[in-house]
Specification:
The structure is a single chain. This protein is an alpha+beta fold and about 130 residues long. It has helices spanning about 1-30, 35, 55-70, and strands at about 40-45, 50-55, 75-85, 90-100, 100-110, 115-125. It has one domain (about 1-125): Nuclear Transport Factor 2, Chain: A (Roll).
């Protein structure tokens, strides 16, 4: 019985954590830059094969448009999620295949005014 209660509780907590990244994951999978940029704050750190800096929301949106124009996403899967020690931020790690290349994607988010904000997103080619 204890195992069943633990399993149900773990499933509920895991589902809540997954929900935080669902919109971001969907936006990456569909290359929907408009939807992805809804998660950007005033500043976002972006790493791509051609960029690595902190950008304003509008600059970050343009960088992601350019990135997705170059790399057509065929699959994106979240592999791991967790939170920082102080639980002030959450992270997810995913695998993406785009234009025949493999990428490891790191996403760091925080909550601001009840909204999930991407603080940093990295697309590192394997």
């Amino acid at each position: 019985m204890k195992n069943l209660v633990f399993l149900i509780l773990f499933t509920i907590v895991g589902t809540a954590a997954n929900a935080q990244f669902d919109g971001i994951s969907d936006a990456i999978s569909s290359q929907n830059v408009t939807e992805l940029s809804n998660f950007f704050g005033d500043q976002v750190e972006i790493t791509t094969p051609n960029q690595d800096d902190v950008f304003s929301k509008s600059e970050a949106t343009n960088i992601m448009k350019s990135f997705f124009a170059t790399y057509k996403v065929t699959s994106f899967t979240l592999q791991h999620q967790g939170s920082s020690k102080g639980k002030s931020s959450e992270y997810a790690i995913g695998d993406m295949i785009a234009s025949g290349k493999k990428f490891r994607v790191f996403i760091y988010v925080s909550e601001k005014s009840g909204k999930t904000i991407i603080e940093q997103i990295q697309f590192e080619q394997d």
